[in-house]
Amino acid sequence: MKILKYGSEGPSVQLLQLALNRAGYGELALDGVFGMQTRNAVLRFQSDNGLVADGIVGPATHRALVPWYTGYAVHRIHRGDTLFLLSQQYGTSLEAINIANPNLVAENLQLGSSVTVPLPFDVVPTNISFTSALVSYCVRGIAARYPFIKVGEVGKSVMGRTLWFMSAGSGGNRVFYNASHHANEWITTPVLLKFAEQLASAYAYGGNIFGQSAAEIFARSNIYIAPCVNPDGVDLVTGELTGGEYYNNAVAIARNYPSIPFPSGWKANIRGVDLNLQYPAGWEQAKENKFAQGFVSPAPSDYVGAAPLIAPESRAMYDFTLSLSPNLILAYHTQGKVIYWKFLDYEPTNSRAIAETFSAVSGYAVEDTPYASGFAGYKDWFIQDFNRPGYTIEAGRGQNPLPISQFDEIYRDNLGILTLGALVT
Q1: 297-310: per-residue pLDDT in tens?
Q2: 3-state DSSP assignment of residue 116
């Protein structure tokens, strides 16, 4: 994390403000501006936690704030501790502690052993900008609260950031959802993370999601989620990445395409390769189409790259998908409230009927992909090589990047698609 101090701005400050609010140090506006109110809250937090009270959020203060970034604390058992006392101390429930520690024997707590304690708020925030660091915090937090959720790496980005995946369920119907191939479509990342958290919670507490039994979903399906395919690009768009070699190179790339606003118009990975034009499904046709539009070199969007699968993020998604061999995929993008379901003349069994089901629960239109953007996408390659249902979901409506204020509507519209996607094949 960055060192933050008075005058700092950006999504890291938003996350800091959120963490301080969660920790009980005020009701700070989540404006991403480190002003006097934020500084005063930091000073109080530092003083209360045995830190140097200088108002500067460096490594030690960030470490102390991690429970409020991730949504859980790790408590070392001391003499006299009981789970009831821990629940009172942290403002959580006994049931939440038991779920997070399935092998814990309440009557035999071992001195010095660790207990994961969920904190009394949702892990995934839906009111601030996302960054690669926040994605990591959310993945860690969900997995800690619900240890039946498995996590791992799809691969690494250009800048070495983890491409996370999460998986839930043990059934035979394997499905794979992904988001943020395109950097300025980052609002799709919290959509998938929030779905993962709500599905895990529903399963843990014996509940439903979108009217479906979470236990039945887990029994029938195995859901894999890659919440952020393009973390470097997301950091650029949201303002987390503001200096250094990679940022300066992106600025130089953007100068060659002055009609695209920077950084808000950036869709590509940090090297200027459009990740959703990297798959071996009519890549040569995509190259012809995009070159005709003037995208002949690394660009903020629409540059297909020198060859298919040269971008590490797309290559990782390709290899991971081959290893999974899912029965259905959902690739989340924005915007338009549209479901794209075909590639050329490929029409996998039941794919149109499933698309109509998704349309019925979301209100989104079912359409064919426009020719000019209908090649070399992840969905295109999956349909071509697997001949199984694959969908690009264009969520929300407006100009990318869509504001986080649209999150609630987007999530409400897509919860049925995400839930039934695990059940319809």
Answers
A1: 999 999 999 999 99
A2: strand
- What tokens appear for 145 in the block? 């609260």
Output phi, psi for 83, to 5 deg: -65, -35
Alpha carbon of residue 193 to chain centroid: 5
* 380 Cβ contact partners less than 8 Å away, ≥ 6 residues apart: 279, 281, 282, 343, 369, 374
From 95, 356, 394, 409, active-site residue: 394
> Mean pLDDT across the chain, nearest whole number?
97
pTM score, two decimals?
A: 0.97
- Cα distance between residue 342 and residue 268, in whole Å: 23
Give the relative orientation of helices 407-420 and 351-362 as an angle to the nearest 10 degrees.
140
Give per-residue pLDDT as tens, 60-114: 999 999 999 999 999 999 999 999 999 999 999 999 999 999 999 888 899 999 9
Alpha helices, DSSP H, located in 205-310: 214-220, 231-238, 245-255, 283-292
Residue 209 phi, psi dihedral angles, 5° rounding: -135, 130
Sole residue written with tokens 């300025």: 184
Does 394 participate in catalysis according to the annotation? yes
CA distances from 203 to 33, 47, 140 (A): 38, 39, 18
Contacts of 301 (CB under 8 A, 6+ apart): 182, 260, 265, 266, 267, 268, 274, 295
